[in-house]
Design brief:
Length: about 270
């Protein structure tokens, strides 16, 4: 009885969590303009309208630029931070690591407002670059967590063997360490890209007149006729997010297996 109750609770919880997402494709292919049951019929017109919307394409382009740039910056900085914290001991290591991880526990609204006040105080014009800065700050902790796991899984004897063979520290890092942690790097890139692509609050505060995809979707919710194309767009975004997270988890597990480490959990 106890086991059955737990299974029922888990099923109800999963339905509550994922049912709204499962409804997206249902209404995206519904010919009715009202998001309600009963359904009227099957259509792909909303996907056609989505593809033909110039403002939506501009917002998508902005989001792709921001997500790609943020993912690359967060991963590069994450490599330096993960390498430093796993390989070296230095004064203030704990507090510095804590500051890097702080965005994980700090509300995004606080981060966004703080960045807005600082940037406006410095006279910086709000544009895509300011959003990239904010998203890099947000993605950094996730990149550091993934890359720290990758670096911790390395066998240090491989690095020492490279030194014994006469390689410099840079060559040992480039030829030995980076190839071994490459699955973690790819996983970090994909995870950071997904987080940046879906992020709304920082983009809302820092984008200025440049719309991103989440802010564009928010602005269109006021117009009932725009809801069906938004549902179609939401379906595409969900599929893209699931695909990217699946690929990221694949490379994370591949990295753990490649380095002979222990899999202590992941995204999926």
């Amino acid at each position: 009885m106890k086991g059955g109750g737990l299974r029922a609770y888990a099923l109800i919880y999963l339905l509550f969590l994922y049912a709204p997402i499962l409804l997206l494709p249902i209404f995206a292919f519904n010919s009715g303009t009202v998001i309600a049951f009963p359904l009227k019929g099957f259509t792909t017109d909303w996907f056609v309208q989505m593809a033909g919307n110039a403002a939506m394409r501009r917002a998508l382009t902005n989001s792709l630029i921001i997500a790609t740039s943020s993912a690359i910056l967060a991963t590069c900085l994450g490599i330096f931070a993960a390498r430093a914290t796993t390989r070296f001991s230095f004064p203030g290591k704990g507090p510095i690591t804590g500051l890097i991880m702080l965005p994980l526990v700090m509300p995004e609204i606080i981060i966004s407002m703080s960045l807005l006040v600082v940037l406006l105080g410095l006279g910086v014009k709000l544009n895509l670059l300011t959003v990239i800065m904010g998203h890099t700050l947000l993605c950094m902790p996730y990149a550091v967590v993934i890359l720290t796991t990758a670096f911790n899984s390395l066998d240090r004897s491989l690095e020492e063997a490279a030194y014994d063979l006469g390689e410099s520290k840079w060559n040992a890092f480039r030829l030995v360490i980076l190839p071994l942690v490459m699955p973690g790097i790819i996983s970090s890139l994909l995870m950071s890209f997904t987080i940046s692509l879906d992020e709304f609050i920082i983009a809302f505060f820092l984008a200025g007149n440049e719309p991103t995809l989440p802010t564009f979707i928010y602005s269109q919710l006021r117009f009932p006729k725009q809801i069906p194309p938004i549902m179609a767009l939401g379906t595409v975004l969900v599929l893209m997010s699931v695909l990217l997270l699946t690929v990221a988890e694949y490379f994370r597990r591949r990295g753990v297996a490649k380095t002979g480490g222990t899999d202590s959990g992941g995204f999926l």
